[in-house]
Specification:
Keywords: Membrane, Transmembrane, Transmembrane helix. This protein is an alpha/beta fold. It is about 45% helix and about 15% strand.
Length: about 350
């Protein structure tokens, strides 16, 4: 017969294994609860899907100027739709395309270029136009752009295809006004509420999706009001709310071509050291209100190429989620367009 001490020794590994399993389960539950309490972007921010996209689609734009207005476009093989994209204040058509022999002055801001890449992957012919001034105006410029879009569609024999539009910030206001005078299958108004308080809306107004950031509560409330007004007039509306997400050591590397992983890690460590992000990686302030450029200058300004500063700024703004163009919701936007194309 075994002694009590022998039986205890025999059972000890099993008890240890059970306790270890219980610890793992408890830790997982606590982590899940913690993550569920904090708003997240709910989108895959990693390199693999972006890398796959870059491999499947190439940016090969054509550049032209008409009466002082810059146009940059690309028409994929066998297009199924066309999209006009309007930038925000201080933006330009060159922001949507990578620098190349075809477009030596292009900038390729991360969110803009990803929207174009995903549009091309979906077989949308893409037209981007630069505003004449800092922001879009609503008089002669609106008439000029309407003519340009029509001319471009006819030039590339796209007349039989659905045409949609997307505008961010000032471009969102512009697209909302343009949609009252052009036949779009659908529009996306990003980080803007539109100009629906200044224009009549007919029942033929196109289906409208608002992509916005709830941290801007004033704009969110106006969007809610306009959505209700549009519904009453028979317009189909939808809404996507963009939430903040945490920085990670590799995030800037994942989203900005030309920025290597070691630099991404160094920048993350600098942001954490200076208190620009909290313990979970969330931005304390909007990127534009964060002194990261000065901190970088004091540390080593040569760490980052000058032409990448705006790219980094855009991603910091996006992570804070108050007012910035975003490609994270591109699937939802293009699904919306496709669901209304006839």
């Amino acid at each position: 017969m075994r002694s009590r001490s022998q039986r205890s020794t025999k059972l000890r590994p099993s008890i240890t294994a059970i306790l270890f399993l219980a610890f793992i389960i408890t830790t997982f539950v606590l982590l899940f609860r913690k993550s569920s309490l904090k708003p997240s972007s709910q989108f895959n921010l990693g390199r693999p899907p972006l890398k796959d996209l870059h491999n499947s689609v190439k940016l090969q734009p054509l550049v032209e100027s008409i009466n002082g207005t810059d146009l940059i476009w690309q028409v994929p093989e066998s297009p199924k739709a066309a999209i006009f994209i309007a930038h925000g204040c201080n933006g330009r058509a060159a922001n949507f395309w990578d620098r190349s022999p075809e477009c030596p002055n292009c900038v390729g801001l991360p969110e803009e270029r990803l929207i174009v890449l995903q549009a091309l992957e979906r077989k949308f012919a893409v037209l981007t136009v630069s505003s004449l001034g800092k922001c879009w105006s609503f008089g002669k410029e609106k008439d000029s752009v309407r003519w340009i879009v029509k001319w471009w569609i006819e030039k590339h024999r796209l007349e039989k295809l659905p045409v949609v539009a997307l505008g961010a910030s000032s471009g969102g206001y512009f697209v909302s006004a343009l949609a009252g005078e052009m036949k779009f299958s659908g529009i996306v108004i990003m980080i803007a509420e539109g100009v629906f308080d200044r224009m009549p809306v007919s029942p033929g107004y196109p289906p409208t999706m608002f992509v916005h950031m709830p941290k801007d509560r004033v704009r969110m409330n106006l969007i809610g009001k306009y959505m209700e007004d549009l519904r009453k007039k028979g317009v189909q509306v939808s809404e996507v709310r963009c939430l903040e997400f945490p920085l990670t050591p590799s995030l800037l590397f994942d989203r900005i071509p030309g920025l290597d992983e070691s630099l991404s890690v160094k920048l993350f460590e600098l942001f954490r050291e200076k208190g620009f992000i909290n313990e979970e990686g969330y931005m304390i302030k909007d990127g534009r209100a964060t002194g990261w450029k000065q901190a970088l200058k004091e540390r080593d300004a040569s760490m980052v190429k000058f032409e990448l500063l705006d790219h980094i700024q855009e991603e910091l703004n996006l992570a804070f989620a108050y007012h910035e163009m975003t490609s994270l919701q591109a699937d939802g936007m293009f699904n919306w367009f496709e669901s209304h194309m006839t």
